[in-house]
Every structure is written in C-alpha cells, then in structure tokens.
Amino acid sequence: MRKAFEEFKAYFKKEKELFDALAQSQHPKWMIIACSDSRVDPALVLGLELGEAFILRNIASLIPPHSKQSGHKSGASAIEYAVEHLKVEHIMIVGHSRCGGIKALLEMKEDGSNRFSEYIEDWIQIAQPASEIAKAKVPHDSPFEELWTCCVKESVNLSLRNCMSYPFVKIPMEKGLLTLHGAYFDFVNGAFDVWKLKCKIDEHQSL
Amino acid sequence: MEWIICRSVAIGNCASRMGRFGNENAYETAIDSLDNLLKNCPELKEKAGKKIEELVKELSLEAKVEHDVKAVVSQLDPVEKIRKGFQEFKAHFKKEQTLFKALAESQHPKWMIIACSDSRVDPALVLGLGLGEAFIVRNIASLVPPHSKESGHSSGASAIEYAVLHLKVEHIMIVGHSRCGGIKALLGMKEDGSNRFSEYIEDWIAIANNASKTAKAKCSHDSPFEDQWTCCVKESVNVSLWNCMSYPFVKEAVQQKKLALHGAYFDFVNGDFQRWALNYRVDEPESL
C-alpha cells in the first residue's frame, strides 16, 4: 500500500490544479450505491476519478425504505446529503454477479431455523420482497444461477423504489433534476448493464 | 508499516449548505426579520450594511470555487463518461483472464476498509487497491456504531460481521479525511438541537458525539477551526475503532491476533496519508 500511495502522491503533485479545486469542495454528478464486495469497486470498474462520485457501499447495495423509526440510517443520511447538499444529478444502484448477500437471502428459511449470523440476516432481509418476486418469476427447475441473477436485479429495483420513498428524492426526480439508474455488473462475463427508473403519473382525468 | 505524517488544513462548506426545499423560505424569512429589525432600530443600518457586504463576498467566493471545480472536473456527459470508463475496464478484463476467473469463484480480501462516501477519498484510487483486495464500506464520515441489541438495520455491523467471520479479513482500517463535511456538521451541532438542518444526517453523525467533545477539550478556544476539525476527524476514527472492538467477534479475533485494527487520516489538501494501529492487550491477572 505504501508503494501505491507513493504513486498516488506523484499523481497528486502532477494534477495540482485539480486537487487545489477539490481541496475546496466537491461537486460530484453521481451518487453510486454499490456492494462492499471486493470485486465490485465502482471507481475501478467505471473509470471514475476523484471528485466524480459520492459512494455508499454496504452488503448487497441495499437501501431501506423511508421510515420514522429510530435506528442508524447510514443509507438515508448519505442519500439526503447527496441529493440536498451536493445536488447530485444521478443516483445509480449497482448489483453484481455472485452476490453473497443475495445468495444468503435466497437460502433464508421463513422460520429462521437456519439463521447463521447476528446482524447479516436482519440487514439482507430488507430485500425480502425481491426474493419473493424472483422465486415467482424464475421456473423451479432453472439453474440456481438464474434465480440468483434475477434476485440481484429485483433487489436493485426494490432499492430504487425505496430511494423514491424519500421525499427529498421523489421531488427532484419529478422535476427532472435527478435520474435514478439500476445496474448489474457481471464480473463473470465482463459486462455492465444499466437501466433507468422512470416514474410518471399522468394528469388526473375527471370521470 | 510506517507512513508519512500528515499535516491538516480543513475548510469546507458542504455540510452547511441549505437544502433544495428549505433555502428560499429561509432567505425570505431572514430578509423579513432584518427589515423589521431595522425599522425598529434604524441606528443598526450601518452595521447591517457591513455584515451584508461580508456575506456577499463570502458567497461570491463560494460561487467562484464551485465554478472552478466544475471547470476542472470532467465535463463529459456523466453516463457517457462511465460508458467510456467501463470500456477501458473491459479491455483490462479480457487481458487478465486468470485473475478474473479466480475472482468469479470467490473473494479473499485481506483488508476491510471503512471510508467516507466523500467523492474525493476513494480508497481504491488513493491506495492503489486492485479488485479483490479490499472489502469496502463507505458511509458519511466512515462511522461504525457500537454493538447493540436494539433492532433496526445495521449496515456497518452486518458488513463487519461478514468480513471478520466469513471472509476472515486480517486487517480493518477506518479512514478519516481532511475537510470532512460530516465532522464539520458534528462540531457545529447545538446540544439542544436548535440548529438542526436535516432529517437523517445529524442522527447519523451523532454516533461520533464523543469525538466532538474530546476535540473541543483538546483544542484551545483560540486555535484555528481547522485544528479542531482535524482533531475531531481523528478522534472520530478512534471512536469508530473502539466501537468496532465492542463487537465480540472483532474482540475475539483481535485477541487471537487474527485481526489488526488501524486508523488512518487521508489529507487531500497536502497529499498525505497517516496510519496508526490500535494496540489492545489485556495482561494476565496478578495476585495482590
């Protein structure tokens, strides 16, 4: 790490104009929510540079829904800061192939009889609805990998909908100031798919 | 490992910016209050004029800085930029097939890194980490809440449990940084909550309350704010390190010497990185 930091330091000295500006403030256009998995670093995969993306990382890139309940809100606070203060223009939630968190979710028994952790299951069960959708969508006799992939993507969509449950997200989205994107990074085949979340409520019509 | 000692400078305006929806009303209310005050106390007009001049200068500087950053950071359409970025990664992916085939099967990172979500402190870029090397948690101010039986989602606790018990990482490093907006907001928080500005942010950063108290006690009243800010960031890292230790599975792994905990401070103003170890030792009891 020491060697690598020396390389960074050389880069730091070379790009003085950039770092002088960044030292004053940050104006990232992106907020990216990605899994903590060591294989899915968004900066490395998407070629992001310092200053470009405000990044939240947790197991399975989950966002819980807006709630008045007490409890630590690492996701909610980060989104509030990114949208209200940094005024990011895009939020992207990135799921990925072979996600251990989503696999554990799919294997969880309803009665909790195969519980294996103190905290992990309580965290990943945020995505429980995605597990139900995936199990309904994918035929029973398909390979597990198909169910796994489907569940990761449904979990991303669920987290996107949960993002929208925060008024400070919904309002700029409706004004066209903020775009929500889902993404799936497949590090088995080297592919990256993105999709937008569009939400439109038509004009009311009187009957 | 020995690291370069960092020096700290910290100014920042991120956490103090008004939100999208509050600012227009707050401005109108403030102008109305000022108007009323000056109607009743016209002798204050000169003083008010001078303060307003200072405010205009400060805001102009802020507007200019924002313009400068935007001029220097890439102006490519954001989606186009990441499309190009991924194409470069894809070329690398095709070249390093042995590595990626192994990573596709499983991950064995030696490090868990907890860093701030701040766009200027990406640990992979700063520390030259490759894919597969570090399990990374990022949140505002790189905070770890203490072990607690209370229900409620715990993203930090679940990630640490997974990293220590399942991935069996050998090191956890918590990285604080210069000009941290979250810590600045923490230092500015009034105890009675009268200057609350957010729905969630203050409840989150209150995890580091003790760091704020320690920093204010350590730094004399007349030192520059930057000193207190830097001190508070480092104390907050230490608070989070101790909170890590409050998890039995962390404590056990540390005591068995299977896991080492490190604090770190990344100074992107001066391009320095300082690291320190958490040394934990319980001696054998001695009979009196």
From TrEMBL, chain A:
Catalytically driven reaction(s): hydrogencarbonate + H(+) = CO2 + H2O
PROSITE patterns: PROK_CO2_ANHYDRASE_1 (PS00704), PROK_CO2_ANHYDRASE_2 (PS00705)
The protein's required cofactors: Zn(2+)
Cofactor: how bound: Binds 1 zinc ion per subunit.
Protein name per its UniProtKB record: Carbonic anhydrase
InterPro entries with a match to the protein in the record: Beta_CA_cladeB, Carbonic_anhydrase, Carbonic_anhydrase_CS, Carbonic_anhydrase_sf
Summary of the function given for this chain in its UniProt record: Reversible hydration of carbon dioxide.
Keyword field contains Zinc: yes
Family as reported in the entry's similarity comment: Belongs to the beta-class carbonic anhydrase family.
UniProt: Zn(2+) binding residues: C35, D37, H96, C99
The entry's keywords: Lyase, Metal-binding, Zinc
One BP annotation, GO: carbon utilization
GO molecular function: carbonate dehydratase activity; zinc ion binding
Automatic annotation (TrEMBL), chain B:
BP GO annotations: carbon utilization
Entry note: cofactor: Binds 1 zinc ion per subunit.
Necessary cofactors: Zn(2+)
Catalytic activity: hydrogencarbonate + H(+) = CO2 + H2O
EC assignment: 4.2.1.1
GO function term, MF aspect, one: carbonate dehydratase activity
Lyase among keywords: yes
TM regions (residue ranges): none
Family designation: Belongs to the beta-class carbonic anhydrase family.
Function of the molecule: Reversible hydration of carbon dioxide.
Protein name as it appears in the record: Carbonic anhydrase
Higher taxonomy: Eukaryota, Viridiplantae, Streptophyta, Embryophyta, Tracheophyta
